[in-house]
Write a structure and sequence with these properties.
Blueprint: E1 4-11, E2 14-22, E3 27-32, E4 37-42, H1 46-51, H2 53-63, H3 76-88, H4 94-103
Antiparallel strand pairs: 1-2, 2-3, 3-4
Helix pairs in contact: 3-4
Amino acid sequence: MKKTITFYVNIGNKKYPCTLKKVNEMETYVECPAARINQGFLNEDVPELIQYLPDHILDAREYEKREEIVRFRIGSEYKKKIEKKALKKGYTSISAYLRDLALKD
């Protein structure tokens, strides 16, 4: 298997490049600037991440329009749990994960 694969996500008539780099048997590094992704993921989570890349790209484009900031404090153990859940669900940031949770009806 190749160690690096580059592919394109098509949204409308625009192509967004993304790269997968095999780190080891357990981890793959995902780079997709349009989706603001530049980090390692467990191999088992990569297919779901790829499936939702168009959503992440659209979210990243919306991010440019955001002006307001909401902050709160939590303990480090809670933060680790939230990060783990966000990554498992394919989110690239805690903010995106918490925003989606907060805005669900």
